[in-house]
Design a protein that fits this description.
single chain; alpha/beta; Spore Coat Polysaccharide Biosynthesis Protein SpsA, Chain A; 8 strands; 37% helix; 15% strand; globular
Length: 262
C-alpha cells in the first residue's frame, strides 16, 4: 500500500515456470494483491503460481497476450486495487521498480507509467536485438508525431495504471495479440490521461519471452494501423468504439480460478 492506495501486481503468463519464482520473490512488500493469469501454458506455471501464494486464474485455451491482460485488469479491479502494475513473469524487467512506478501513480501526477528500456540507454546493453531497437526507434518517432506526445518508447511491457484509467478505457475493444499494449497507450492519449516514464533496465536471455521476426513485423504493422486509426478518429473521419467511452463492452467469462492442486 502507498498513501492509502492498494497496489496490485498482475502477471500475464505463458510457459513462465522457470522464471516465475524469482519474479515473485522480488516483489516488494508494498504489493497488496498478486495475480497471475495463465494463458493455457504447457508447463506447470499455474501450479507453481498457486504454491507461491499468488491468486491464479487459468484460461480455458490460449487466447493471446492481449486477452491475458484483459483478464488481469478485470480481476485486479474486482480485488479492490487502486493501482495496478503489470510485471512480466519472465524476469525480463526487474520487479524492484514496482514501488517507484506505483508511487508515481499514487502521487496523482500520472495515470499511466511506462518502464522505458530506452531511457538510460540500456536496451542494447541488455541484449535487445539490433533490428528490434531500430524498429522501436522508428515506430516511437512515428507515433510521437501523430499522437502529439513525446515518449521515449511505446513498446515496453512494464506498466502501471490508475484504477480510473482501467475503468475508463474500452480495452475489450483491443486486440488479443501483442499490439494490445500499443492500443492502450493510444487510448490513454485519446482520453486525456497523463503518461509518465521511468528508466528500466531489461534483460534478454533464453527463458525471457520474445516474439520472433515474423511476429515482430506483424506487431509493427499493427502499431502503424493503431496510429492511423487514432488520427482518423480524432479528425472525425471515422468513429471507432476503441476510442469512445461507449465502446466498453462485457465479455462472458472464459477462465477459472485455480483453487486447488489438480
Amino acid at each position: 500500500m502507498i498513501d492509502g492506495k492498494r497496489i496490485a501486481v498482475v502477471m500475464p503468463a505463458y510457459n513462465a515456470e522457470k522464471t516465475l519464482e524469482v519474479t515473485v520473490r522480488e516483489l516488494s512488500a508494498v504489493v497488496d494483491i498478486k495475480i497471475l493469469v495463465d494463458d493455457s501454458s504447457r508447463d506447470q506455471t499455474a501450479q507453481l503460481s498457486r504454491e507461491l501464494g499468488v491468486q491464479t486464474f487459468v484460461h480455458d485455451t490460449n487466447y493471446g497476450y492481449g486477452r491475458n491482460q484483459q483478464t488481469c485488469y478485470q480481476e485486479a479491479l474486482a480485488a479492490g486495487a487502486d493501482i495496478v502494475v503489470m510485471v512480466h513473469p519472465d524476469y525480463q524487467y526487474t520487479p524492484s521498480l514496482v514501488p517507484a512506478m506505483a508511487g508515481m501513480v499514487a502521487s496523482g501526477v500520472y495515470d499511466m507509467v511506462l518502464g522505458s528500456r530506452i531511457l538510460g540507454g540500456g536496451a542494447l546493453r541488455g541484449g535487445m536485438p539490433l533490428y528490434k531497437y531500430i524498429a522501436n526507434r522508428f515506430l516511437t518517432a512515428f507515433q510521437n508525431l501523430f499522437l502529439g506526445v513525446k515518449l521515449s518508447e511505446y513498446h515496453t511491457g512494464f506498466r502501471a495504471f490508475s484504477r480510473e484509467l482501467l475503468e475508463t478505457l474500452p480495452i475489450l475493444e483491443n486486440s488479443d495479440d501483442f499490439v494490445f499494449d500499443n492500443q492502450m497507450i493510444a487510448q490513454a492519449v485519446m482520453f486525456g490521461f497523463r503518461i509518465g516514464e521511468i528508466s528500466c533496465p531489461t534483460k534478454y536471455f533464453r527463458e525471457a519471452s520474445s516474439i520472433n521476426f515474423k511476429r515482430s513485423v506483424q506487431y509493427g504493422l499493427g502499431v502503424l494501423g493503431t496510429t492511423l486509426s487514432f488520427v482518423a478518429h480524432k479528425w472525425h473521419l471515422v468513429r471507432l468504439p476503441r476510442f469512445e467511452a461507449s465502446g466498453r463492452k462485457v465479455r462472458q467469462k472464459y477462465y477459472s480460478e485455480l483453487t486447488h492442486r489438480p
